[in-house]
Write a structure and sequence with these properties.
Length: 757
């Protein structure tokens, strides 16, 4: 018998593995391509409680194209996905294919009957409990009763008996019975009372038992369902006190929570319509009332819409739209959209008009930089997070070697420049960004010629650095001083905790100003500095507002988008051009929030990125996360440029404080609290911590920060071992496998263990 299993989750995985172990020809359909690949390549690890674990190879596909024909389709998806799942399978079926459902709730067989002949439908019930103990790992407990299967319409047939025998051979104790309606209603009684109540309250079964008010409410749910069952002549277990078996079940389940709670925690749609919602419909058809079941159905639907309502709340609070009703979520059975990065993508947000403007803006910056020398303006090679406002106030044009390294790596040209720097004696453990830039200088070639129409980076008249994010900047810019024989000036702010409320940082800024005045023979115009600081403050405020928009669900842009749009605050800080650009970008993104348009078509998970970007693999990473429905909605890197505290009325002191208070210059204790707060604000499910091989200061992995933040926030973290600019230290294949395992592990383990199916 050729069997197709729709859904490779708990029930589908268990039945598929057991049938495959028994030698049956089994194919599982899993629309999540990443999960399908993981299970196909490595199989499923399965064990019964108290027995050894076994690895079972499985054939798992993400499309039925080229598959079939199948003799039996086993439906193991959520109730609301039934029709879509069966419709997907039909091209691989014949007029004799049977369809079997052991799903929870009422209405699954009826949904299938709208697509196939009712005589080909089998329905049943299972009491097995299944535990996800890790990626592709299942542990199960045999049900308190055998699986029961019966024909939906018609009589028992030899084909049905053969299916029962096949299940028994596979170690799944199964009875073929004339009718399972009574058993389905009896199981529904428990699920409809326990599942939504726990889901709404977040309480375990043991905790619900201890709450008298909650138990009274649950008894009212039970009474309404029992009234419907009696009207349908369904036998009641313990007719004198139908609620007593539910109390016994709660006692046995103890600290566990039901699967509906898991679904709400994951932001997924629940099966409440097949449970309490179905009770309400049947009751109304029979002239009965079920107000408690109706109320809890509405409450669950409200929670399901929580993410969408959160999007509206954010838009409302930001003043970009009045509160309005939201649409229902897209069907969960749909596969996530592919976002390969760069260019418009079918079914996703159209390209922002501001992206075209950004290209013009950056091009004009480099054109103006080339002309600086011709008009006698001094040029300073400057680290990105140095107080550039002082340079602009002294009429010095800033050039940022870090951006040169980013462009090189983004164009996949870093390897040859790393080799050139190595030949010059730079260690492979030194900052790869520094080595890429210096290697290009030594080789006298640059992608700037093709990208911006200039010969290459300008020759600087001086070098200025700041060590607030890394002490390697001193080495980098001292090389510039020696290579070009120009003066080097640095600003090394004290740690933020020490800088606040002290004059140390202010004194250092004043010393920097004096040094620059002495090297250039110019006097700083404080009024001009105030004007430029004011522009930086406005641009930083707009950038912060833009980043806040990603709190909406779905997020209107991702971390990868922010790496493009961070350019003006990095290159043009202190100019009116940066302010104008961010006004345009904010308007466009606010429109996306109003329209409910996300960067990903189907946002399933929300991640945070800590550490520097992997510039040499951004396109690959963008596609890798997007194909898994992961929107990276916020990052430490992008937030670092939202400099806070800049004040035109106190330009020197506020500049000192703003640049001292960046993330890399704060204590671990302060940053841990800040990260936990960000995770909550953006509603993230997990964190990617980039352990940057050659710039460990730029990340926060190596001294226990991720573990401490997870304990504080409850948000799990994944450590990505790579590098910002060296492609040899990035393995896409390894990351894909690790990412799939991480997503699968934390997707299935968000809830307490055993889930009755």
């Amino acid at each position: 018998m050729r069997i197709l299993i729709l859904g490779a989750g708990a029930l589908g995985g268990l039945v598929g593995a057991q049938l495959a172990r028994a030698g049956e020809d089994v194919t599982l359909l899993e629309v999540n391509a990443a999960r399908a690949r993981l299970l196909s390549e490595d199989g499923v690890l399965i064990s019964r409680i108290g027995e050894p674990e076994a690895c079972v190879p499985l054939r798992v596909v993400s499309s039925v194209e080229g598959q079939g024909p199948f003799d039996l389709v086993f439906v193991a998806v959520k109730s609301y996905e039934t029709a879509d799942a069966v419709r997907t399978a039909l091209p691989a079926c014949t007029g004799r294919t049977l369809f079997l459902s052991l799903q929870n709730g009422i209405g699954n067989a009826e949904a299938m009957a709208t697509l196939v002949d009712p005589s080909r439908i089998l329905c049943g019930i299972t009491y097995h409990s299944i535990q996800h103990t890790g990626p592709r790992r299942l542990q199960y407990r045999t049900g308190i009763k055998p699986i029961q299967i019966a024909p939906f319409a018609g009589r028992r047939t030899p084909a049905l008996e053969a299916i029962g025998a096949m299940f028994r051979k596979a170690g799944l104790d199964t009875e073929v019975v004339p009718d399972v309606e009574h058993a389905i209603w009896q199981k529904l009684l428990h699920n409809a009372v326990v599942n939504p109540t726990s889901a709404l309250t977040g309480l375990t079964c043991r905790e619900m038992l201890a709450d008298d008010d909650l138990m009274a409410f649950m008894r009212s749910l039970c009474d309404e369902i029992v009234a419907v069952m009696r009207a349908r002549d369904v036998p009641i277990v313990n007719p004198d006190d139908p609620f007593k078996p539910i109390v016994g079940s709660l006692t046995a389940l103890g600290k566990n929570r039901p699967s509906m709670w898991q679904d709400l925690m994951r932001g997924k749609r629940t099966e409440v319509d097949a449970l309490n919602g179905a009770v309400v419909k049947v009751a109304e058809a029979m002239g009965l009332a079920a107000p408690h079941n109706a109320a809890i159905t509405h409450f669950i639907h409200s929670r399901e819409r929580n993410k969408f309502l959160n999007r509206e709340r954010i838009a409302y609070e930001l003043g970009i739209v009045e509160h309005r009703p939201v649409e229902a979520a897209a069907p969960a059975f749909a596969a996530p959209a592919v976002h390969a990065g760069g260019g418009p993508r079918p079914g996703q947000a159209p390209r922002l008009e501001s992206t075209r403007k950004l290209k013009e803006l950056v091009g004009a910056y480099y054109t103006d930089l080339r002309a600086a020398g011709e008009r006698g303006q001094l040029v300073a090679a400057c680290s990105t997070l140095a107080p550039v406002e002082i340079l602009r106030a002294l009429d010095i044009a800033p050039y940022f070697p870090e951006h040169h390294a980013v462009v090189i790596s983004a164009k996949h040209q870093s390897s040859r420049y790393l080799a050139r720097a190595g030949a010059e004696g730079f260690s492979q453990f030194a900052s790869s960004g520094m080595r890429v830039d210096i290697g290009a200088l030594l080789q006298r070639t640059s992608p700037f010629a093709a990208a911006y129409g200039i010969e290459g980076p300008p020759r600087p008249d001086l070098a200025v650095f700041c060590t607030n994010s890394s002490h390697e900047f001193r080495r980098w810019f001292e090389f510039y001083g020696g290579h070009f024989d120009v003066p080097v000036a640095g600003f090394s702010p004290p740690p933020a905790a020490e800088a606040n409320g002290s004059s140390a940082g202010v004194d250092l800024v004043r010393h920097l100003i004096e040094r620059l005045e002495g090297e250039t023979g110019r006097r700083l115009d404080v009024a001009r500095l105030s004007e430029i600081v004011g522009l930086s403050a406005e641009a930083a405020g707009l950038w912060s507002r833009i980043l806040d928009l990603a709190q909406a669900t779905p997020a209107p842009f991702t971390f990868f988008d922010s790496l493009v749009h961070v350019a003006p605050i990095a290159l043009l800080r202190g100019t009116s051009e940066a302010v104008s650009y961010y006004r345009l970008l904010a308007d466009e993104l606010e429109q996306r929030v109003r329209d409910g348009v996300g960067a990903l078509e189907h946002e399933q998970y929300r991640f945070y990125w800590d550490g520097p970007p992997v510039w040499c693999a951004m396109r690959a990473l963008s596609g890798m996360f997007a194909t898994r429905g992961v929107a990276i909605v916020a990052s430490t890197y992008a937030s670092t440029f939202a400099l806070s505290g800049l004040d035109a009325n106190d330009p020197v002191a506020s500049t000192a404080a703003a640049y001292a208070n960046v993330f890399g210059n704060r204590s671990d204790a302060v940053n841990e609290a800040w990260l936990a707060s960000r995770f909550s604000t953006y509603g993230v499910d997990a964190v990617v911590y980039h352990d940057c091989r050659t710039s460990p200061e730029a990340g926060h992995v190596r001294y226990g920060v991720p573990m401490r933040v997870e304990r504080r926030s409850g948000v799990p973290g994944y450590v990505l071992e790579a590098d910002a600019h060296d492609p040899r230290l990035f393995s896409a294949e390894r990351l894909e496998r690790q990412l799939d395992e991480f997503i699968e592990r934390h997707r299935e383990l968000q809830a307490d263990r055993f889930v009755a199916v």
